Recover the amino acids of this structure.
């Protein structure tokens, strides 16, 4: 056989392999071979939005961004009516960016009240409250717009309940959560600087109850993160109150009641993962994923190797279910899991949740079935443990602030002994918290690497 004949034979062989490959992909990904939906997936997709009420704090969060020259309750009614209209007309309960912008636009322009407000990170800085105090002492709140926003915020935290939307789209708009974060800091600090303890503690109680409600009843991850940050600020706030003021026993009791232990509903992200993944499943159901491809050719290739039902089942079994199970672990069990991860020996059940490359990255004949769905699973398989770390740390911070309260009741005497003997202990190890006399802090090692888990004495 001549060199030319060999080359021609090679190209024929290569072409036949390519044709066989494409034919196999096309055949095994025909609609007739798609799976039946799992009952659990059918239940997720069956969730339907319900009408909103104006006294829902979720509506109140949207209304914070309404024109500042308009009455707050009117803004809440506008957002409520628009969202309920969307539910009636489309079956979905989220606003597009254009719809949101139309509701918040003002003939006089947007207020810039927030631009000069102090910022800090409650999660990484244990002096966040001190920074806000320093700023407000040098720059007291006097401008009309900020005072109006504080009044709106006071109305917001008196809302009767919190119920978020069920649906979310990549083109949707959630409430601007940076505003309530800023107002949470300003509201507490302003009251602390201008009111006696007996007057600002009840206001703190209302504010804390509001954010605990958001923490418990929200299911968007961003809402959970913001609520956890707000509560961390509360722990810094109440620590400063304990450190800087002489409190009566009745006030100690009042603070202890306000800072009730965090429930499993508040610290678990299971429902948040459930709803977040539900919306990913809806994208599969609507076949929206192919619309994000870079060209018509890539969109066509995506659809040729795509099985909608099989993709939804795959996501539920390999991402939704294990991430929910991880979120329901106790702090002690979660800590043990993190130790296993650091040692490279993790239960296969949680492979999807720890930045670990899925077995789908390794070639086998079965990967050709629903190849597009398996590829997209990689985008959902991520560091879910990082989110859980934050909430287990928050649980530890609650115990730490209760220890601070116990020390203050003993006039900060015999600190080392009280810390060792206290019932308030490290939630990961059940050991006593650490006491650093040099920096005058009580602390524990956060699981979240960038966080700060210390309180000043």
């Amino acid at each position: 056989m001549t060199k030319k004949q060999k080359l021609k034979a090679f190209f024929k062989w290569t072409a036949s392999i390519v044709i066989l490959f494409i034919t196999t992909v096309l055949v095994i990904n025909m609609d007739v071979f798609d799976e039946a939906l799992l009952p659990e997936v059918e239940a997720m997709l069956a969730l339907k939005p319900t009408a909103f009420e104006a006294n829902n704090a979720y509506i109140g969060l949207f209304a914070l961004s309404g024109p500042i020259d308009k009455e707050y309750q009117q803004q809440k009614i506008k957002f409520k009516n628009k969202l309920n209209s969307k539910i009636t007309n489309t079956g979905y309960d989220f606003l597009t960016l254009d719809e949101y912008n139309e509701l918040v636009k003002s003939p006089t322009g947007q207020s810039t009240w927030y631009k000069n407000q102090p910022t800090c990170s409650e999660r990484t800085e244990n002096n966040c409250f001190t920074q806000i105090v320093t700023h407000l002492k040098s720059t007291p709140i006097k401008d009309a717009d900020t005072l109006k926003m504080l009044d709106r915020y006071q109305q917001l935290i008196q809302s009767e309940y919190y119920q978020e939307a069920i649906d979310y789209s990549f083109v949707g708009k959630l409430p601007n959560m940076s505003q309530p974060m800023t107002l949470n800091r300003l509201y507490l600090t302003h009251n602390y600087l201008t009111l006696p303890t007996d007057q600002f503690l009840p206001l703190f109680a209302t504010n804390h109850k509001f954010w605990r409600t958001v923490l418990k009843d929200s299911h968007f991850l961003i809402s959970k993160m913001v609520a956890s940050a707000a509560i961390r600020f509360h722990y810094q706030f109440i620590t400063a109150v304990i450190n800087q003021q002489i409190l009566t026993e009745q006030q100690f009791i009042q603070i202890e009641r306000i800072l009730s232990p965090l429930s499993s509903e508040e610290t678990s992200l299971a429902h948040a993962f459930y709803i977040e993944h539900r919306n990913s499943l809806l994208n599969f159901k609507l076949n929206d994923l192919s619309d994000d491809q870079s060209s018509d050719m890539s969109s066509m290739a995506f659809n040729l190797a795509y099985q909608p039902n099989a993709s939804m089942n795959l996501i539920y079994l390999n991402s939704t279910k294990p991430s929910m199970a991880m979120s329901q672990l106790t702090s002690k069990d979660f800590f043990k899991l993190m130790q296993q991860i650091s040692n490279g020996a993790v239960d296969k059940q949680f492979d999807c949740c720890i930045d670990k490359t899925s077995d789908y990255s390794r070639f086998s004949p079965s990967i050709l079935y629903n190849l597009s769905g398996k590829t997209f699973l990689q985008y959902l398989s991520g560091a879910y443990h990082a989110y859980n770390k934050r909430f287990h740390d928050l649980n530890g911070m609650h115990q730490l602030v209760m220890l601070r309260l116990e020390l203050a009741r003993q006039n900060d005497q015999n600190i080392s002994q009280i810390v060792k003997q206290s019932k308030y202990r490290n939630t990961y190890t059940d050991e006593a918290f650490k006491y650093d006399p040099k920096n005058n802090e009580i602390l524990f090692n956060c699981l979240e690497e960038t966080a700060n888990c210390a309180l000043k004495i």
Q: What stands out?
A: The two ends are 89 Å apart (CA to CA).
